[in-house]
Amino acid sequence: MSILIDILLAILGVYLAMQSLLASRLSQSVFLFFAFGLALALAWVRLGAVDVAITEAAIAAGFLGVLFLDALRDFSPRDTEEQQNLTTVQNSLSRKESKSLLLPRLALVLGLGLFLLIALEAVWKIPEGGGLTAAAETLLPESGVEHPVTAVLLNFRAYDTWLEIGVILLGLLAVFAVGGIQIYRKPIAAADDPLMRQVILFFTPVLFLFGAFLLYIGKSGPGGAFQAGVLWGAIGILLHFGGIPVYSWVPRWLGHLLLTLGLVFFLLLGFLFMAAGDNLFEYPPAYAGLLILIVETLAAISIAAALTAIFANLNQMKKEQPNDTAQK
Amino acid sequence: MMIKEVIAIILLVVGCFFFLAGTIGVLRFPDLFSRLHALTKADNLGLGFIAAGMAVYIASPLAALKIFFIWLFTLLASSTSCYLIARFQKEQEQSKNRKEQG
Questions:
Q1: Contacts of B98 in chain A (CB under 8 A)
Q2: Angle, nearest 10°, between helix axes A288-327 and A64-75?
Q3: Tally of structural domains, chain B
Q4: Confidence band of A191 (pLDDT split at 50, 70, 90)
Q5: A200 CA to chain B: closest CA distance, Å?
Q6: Which residue of B has its CA nearest to A193?
Q7: For the segment A166-176, what is each residue's pLDDT rounded down to a tens digit?
Q8: pLDDT per residue over A123-157, tens digit each?
């Protein structure tokens, strides 16, 4: 029975991914991508990786979904004139595409195929070595936490996690690079909808509490900094939707401090213990639990701030363009 | 088979029936408003029955409370998003009518 569900999930995942890539309309692609994210999250649950499942559902289906919907609104042409321009542009583009993009496509397909083969080989070989589960389990008492995934992420392989926090910050830098660092001069006209405002105000403490719960439970079960950070970031995004642009209310220096807090503290702690004679990101077992909790909390704050900032800046970029064309 | 499991299975089947009805409604109904109606109303009920079925099956007060909250939050979120989509559609139709008249 369970193998049936697994096979169905596997087929569903591949099918949704292909449909999402091949869909003729942009909106179809976006909604199929949501479904793909959820199917992937279910697949992770079936594989027993609940941590990954929560992150997948929160980031791929949730946060990316918000960004895609936001982009979709921007790409949907409002006037017929605009639409005609777009279609002519698209036609000229597609004509060019058919010739010049053949070589890059071939390279992409070959590269991805090779990558897939290597991944398949790696998956094939796991049972031989037995994986690193046993090694992680034996060192668990030294890590300061009870959940093996958290122990690996925040202690044994802390370097990877540190880089991952940096990747989110890099994403924000890319947004800055495209749109420039902009500060809201005046808040957006507050959403005039009383219902939406009430719901957002209701969900804010709930999301905060649930994020804090995930952060703390990460010590002994699935959860941790990334999941909590996404939930806290969702608060910021929701408040933006409700006409409360938190990102612009926070002073610039404080915003930048919040953005880099997790990364900097993580690194400083690593260097501190390196100066004391340990390896980078190696914690003394006596304090490891407390230190990991502090690092995770600060990392969650930074991730939440970065996600909110990415959304706020992308949203801002689009809001300004109609005004620009109106002025011209 | 215990009576608890029988009750749970009945609740789950009823929940699945409502999900099926909602999905058929989304596929068959002609316009956005009736589709929204089919989707959110039927799915809320379906999720409610499935949540109740799972709560009966697990039979632990704490788990039942958690499941109840999951249902409650989904209810809130889905009805709000239903309202927002409907409002967006209504505004668009109004602005389209205004353009056609003017």
A1: none
A2: 0
A3: 1
A4: low
A5: 10
A6: B84
A7: 888 898 888 88
A8: 777 666 566 677 777 777 777 777 777 777 777 77
Shortest distance between the Cα of A206 and any Cα of chain B, in A, equals 9
Q: What are phi and psi of A250, to 5 degrees?
A: -70, 135
Amino acid B85: pLDDT: 85
Residue A184 clears pLDDT 90, i.e. is over it: no
What value does the mean pLDDT take over residues A169-186? 72
CA angle A186, A190, A196 (to 5 degrees): 150
Tokens 């959110």 -> residue: B40
Q: Do A193 and B87 touch (CB under 8 A)?
A: yes
Contact check, Cβ <8 Å, B73/A195 = no
Rounded CA-CA distance A159/A166 in Å is 11
Residue B88 contacts A, CB cutoff 8 Å = no
Where in the sequence is the domain holding B24, given as residue range(s)? 3-101
Q: Which chain A residue shows the shortest CA-CA distance from B85?
A: A196
* Residue matched to tokens 């409370």: B65
Q: Which residues of A touch B73 (CB under 8 A)?
A: 203, 206
Question: Which has the higher per-residue pLDDT, B1 or A268?
Answer: A268
Chain B residue nearest residue A202, CA to CA: B76
Q: What is the mean pLDDT of residues A170-199?
A: 70
Residue with tokens 């292909």: A18
Contact: A193, B73; criterion CB under 8 Å: no
Rounded CA separation A160/A147 (Å): 18
Which chain B residue has the Cα nearest residue A196? Answer: B80
CB A151 within 8 A of CB A143: yes
> In percent, how much of chain A has pLDDT > 90?
8
